[in-house]
Structures are given as C-alpha cells and as structure tokens.
Design brief:
The protein is mainly α. It has 4 helices and 2 strands. Helices cover 70% and strands 8% of the residues. α2 runs antiparallel to α3 and α3 packs antiparallel against α4. It starts with 6 loop residues before the first strand and ends with a helix.
C-alpha cells in the first residue's frame, strides 16, 4: 500500500495522507505569521521586555522548523536563515542586549 492509498480514520470519516497534506498551510501563510511574530519580538526587545521577546523568538523558530518539515524544498534556505540570522537574535536575547 502506497502513501497515497493510506487512510487515516477520524471521528468525521476517513481521509488520505494526500488530503491531509493539501490542508496544511503553505509557506506564504506561515511567513505572514512569522513576520508578525518577528515584529512583536522586535518591539518587545526594544521595550526591554526580554521574556516576551524570548517567547516570540521561540515561536518564530518553531514555525520555521515546522515549515522545513512540511515544505522540505525550503529546508536548506530555512536552516541557513536560522543559523545566520535568527540564532544571533536568540543569543542577544539571552544576553538581554
């Protein structure tokens, strides 16, 4: 049985893995949320609310990690962005700088 033939049973009926995959938000949808969270991160850090800024950092990082799983064609780009841009922000948050 191939993945396209696999069915998952829910309380509402059966759905295929392909149908579930089609329901996942796309990269554009996720990036809209990421940009809002990143803006909130900046404002919280700028105002000295390090705990709130750290929350938005972790949420942003999680969404990008999940995006790399659900949209593997962006995995290398997302890994480079996290390494080169996002992780330095996290280090600054830890240093409260």
């Amino acid at each position: 049985m191939g993945d396209e033939d696999r069915k998952v049973t829910t309380k509402h009926g059966e759905v295929s893995l392909e149908e579930i995959g089609a329901l996942l938000p796309g990269a554009g949808d996720i990036m809209v949320v990421v940009s809002r969270l990143y803006g909130n991160l900046w404002h919280a850090a700028h105002g000295g609310n390090w705990d709130l800024a750290s929350f938005y950092f972790r949420r942003t990082r999680t969404l990008l990690r999940h995006l790399a799983i659900t949209r593997p064609k962006y995995e290398a780009q997302l890994a480079a962005y996290q390494r080169d841009h996002l992780e330095p922000v996290g280090e600054s948050l830890l240093a409260r700088d």
